[in-house]
Amino acid sequence: MDPIRSELTWEPAQLGPDAVRTIRRTSDLRGLFVDAASLEELVRAGDPVVYETYEPSIPEGPGHLRYGLTVLYPGHVGREYFMTRGHFHLRRETAEVYVPLRGRGVLVLQDELGRCRVEDLHPGVVVYVPPGWAHRSVNTGSEPLVFFYVYPADAGHDYETVARSGFRVRVLAQDGHPQVVPVEGP
Ligand code: F6R
Ligand code: ZN
């Protein structure tokens, strides 16, 4: 294949010109947030976009790297900050690199033993997601959280494990500040 060149724009934050844009609205994220009633209110009030990703069409085969841009908008569902669905990679031996470009947030990581880590995301840091760690980004700021990411193209995405077992922490607003709160349960 030929080399690919992408262009980053800032206002609005986008990756172009040939990236595939995927949009996730509140109605796509039922079951994700703890406050289901507040989510339905948002759906009725116009179903805002929670996040979008832009990814060039790079083959999902071995040897390739896929990369993209996530734009995670500021907002809350009840007290819970807007966040991505979160996933393990299907091939657990694959890692990922996150490079925040704008905004503030956290990356919640959890391994299959249930160990949790929370890493700050803001311009000036790079976060390495090691193999075997599920990851979910959370916008704790008041502007879009924009980050670039790159991962092995054959990684695959496993959303089911996270949907079934969940993350052990949630990130909630407390007096206007983010608080990492353990999830009750077995
Ligand atoms: C790719 C990756 C991120 C997310 C994106 C949306 O492996 O980790 O680019 O895909 O931030 O989040 P999800 O995929 O969890 O909806
Ligand atoms: Zn990933």
Mean pLDDT: 96
The CATH C-level class name: Mainly Beta
| Silhouette | globular
Low-confidence stretches: none
Measured distance between first and last alpha carbons: 49 Å
CATH homologous group name: Jelly Rolls
Spatial extent as radius of gyration: 16 Å
How many independent structural domains?
A: 1
H/I helix tally: 2
Name the ligand types. fructose -6-phosphate, zinc ion
Major beta sheet, strand line-up = 3-4-5-14-9-12
In short:
By secondary structure, the protein is mainly β. It has helices at residues 36-44, 160-165, and strands at 7-10, 13-16, 20-25, 49-55, 65-72, 76-77, 80-81, 88-89, 96-102, 105-111, 116-121, 127-129, 133-139, 145-152, 157-158, 169-174, 177-182. The chain is globular, with a radius of gyration of 16 Å.
Question: What keywords describe this structure?
Answer:
186 residues; mainly beta; Jelly Rolls; 6-stranded antiparallel sheet; 3-stranded antiparallel sheet; 2 helices; globular; binds fructose -6-phosphate; binds zinc ion
Question: How does this structure look, described?
Answer:
- The chain has 186 residues and is mainly β.
- It has one domain: Jelly Rolls (Sandwich).
- It contains two helices and 17 strands.
- The chain has helices spanning 36-44, 160-165, and strands at 7-10, 13-16, 20-25, 49-55, 65-72, 76-77, 80-81, 88-89, 96-102, 105-111, 116-121, 127-129, 133-139, 145-152, 157-158, 169-174, 177-182.
- Strands 3-4-5-14-9-12 form a six-stranded antiparallel sheet, with no helix packed on it. It has a three-stranded antiparallel sheet with strand order 11-10-13, with no helix packed on it. Strands 1-2 form a two-stranded antiparallel sheet.
- Strand 6 (76-77) and strand 7 (80-81) form a beta hairpin.
- Bound molecules: fructose -6-phosphate (F6R) and zinc ion.
- Zinc ion binds at residues 87, 89, 96, 135, 151.
- The site of fructose -6-phosphate has 13 residues, from strand 5, strand 13 and strand 14.
